[in-house]
Design a protein that fits this description.
Elements lengths: L8 H8 L3 H8 L9 H17 L3 H7 L6 H17 L3 H16 L7 H14 L2 H8 L6 H13 L3 H11 L7 H14 L2 H17 L4 H13 L3 H14 L4 H13 L4 H14 L4 H18 L4
Helix pairs in contact: 1-2, 2-3, 3-5, 4-5, 5-6, 5-7, 6-7, 7-8, 7-9, 8-9, 9-10, 9-11, 10-11, 11-12, 12-13, 13-14, 13-15, 14-15, 15-16
């Protein structure tokens, strides 16, 4: 029997590479409507996840209703969570987390790979990493669930477990776009010039054979930064900035490069201000604010 054709392969790869506007264009093109009902639902899931990635939360919550598939309702809850998080609305975040738990517990929703993945994404942002793993390990042959599990292992400083995921992937999805990205992430976390170079080649090949996006350019830049080649990294990041002037990872790394290349302090400050505007709760901003607070507290001990 011939293998079933993945009608959403192009859409998936565009999403994984961070080409969110292309996802939206493809998913709203009537001529590419998939044949099966499940694929139609999943196409809408990718469409609204792309809107979430662009920060268009109200559009998502207005287009997804209570009678839509649970997979779509999960994305609507994700949009509410991200909107509340960006606004510093803790009550809104808690409500979204509670609603996701309720959705997971209804009928067979918890068995849906997409619901598991989106719920795991919310839990990841909450820092509930053990719960993330409980959600996504139920689907060991779903690439996105493996990707989220791998990111979680790295967040927990368990590169050994992340590397095991990479090795398992090579037995069934070695050539998949997301599988290559996962390997590049693990290589970068592992450190060392050789692993950084391997990751650079992965990002470069994907950019040349698929589409060059801010995600891929920033990935290449981080590889160069690990090798101490900050000027090369800065050039890649500026190219990324031309593609997406509000990309948080690009702005965070540009601030680092500005300091590393001896730019005037106001250059790094400008990038940081842009980052605060684009992503107020970005981990880099939170870490910087924590360090500034600790420094101020320490300095007060020596006030005359």
């Amino acid at each position: 029997m011939a293998e079933a054709v993945d009608e959403l392969l192009l859409l998936r790869n565009q999403f994984y590479l961070g080409s969110f506007q292309q996802v939206i264009n493809e998913a709203t093109n009537p001529s590419t409507t998939p044949r099966t009902d499940s694929a139609k639902v999943e196409r809408r899931v990718f469409l609204h996840r792309a809107y979430v990635a662009q920060g268009r939360y109200n559009l998502v919550t207005s287009e997804i209703g209570p009678n839509d598939a649970p997979e779509l309702q999960a994305v609507s809850i994700l949009a509410r969570y991200m909107q509340a998080s960006g606004a510093g609305n803790n009550a809104g975040k808690e409500a979204a987390v509670g609603d996701m738990g309720t959705l997971m517990g209804e009928g067979t929703n918890g068995l849906s790979t997409i619901v598991q993945l989106v719920a795991g994404t919310v839990l990841y942002h909450e820092g509930r990493f053990e719960d993330v793993l409980r959600a996504v390990v139920q689907s060991p042959k779903n690439l996105e669930c493996v990707a989220l599990a791998t990111q979680t292992y790295l967040k927990l400083d368990r590169p050994d477990l992340a590397r095991k995921e990479v090795e398992k992937l090579k037995t069934w999805a070695d050539d998949a776009t997301l599988a290559q990205l996962i390997e590049a992430w693990v290589n970068l976390y592992s450190g060392g010039e050789e692993k950084a170079q391997e990751s650079y080649y992965i990002f470069e090949e994907l950019a040349s054979s698929k589409v060059s996006t801010s995600k891929l350019l920033t990935g290449q830049a981080v590889c160069r930064m690990q090798a101490g080649r900050f000027a090369d990294a800065e050039a890649l990041l500026l190219e990324s900035l031309n593609k997406n002037a509000a990309d948080p990872e690009t702005l965070a790394n540009l601030a680092i490069c500005a300091n590393a290349t001896g730019k005037p302090a106001e250059v790094a400050t400008r990038y940081l201000n842009q980052l605060k505007d684009a992503s107020p709760n970005h981990p880099f901003i939170q870490e910087l604010q924590l360090k500034e607070s600790l420094f101020d507290r320490a300095a007060q001990r020596y006030v005359l």
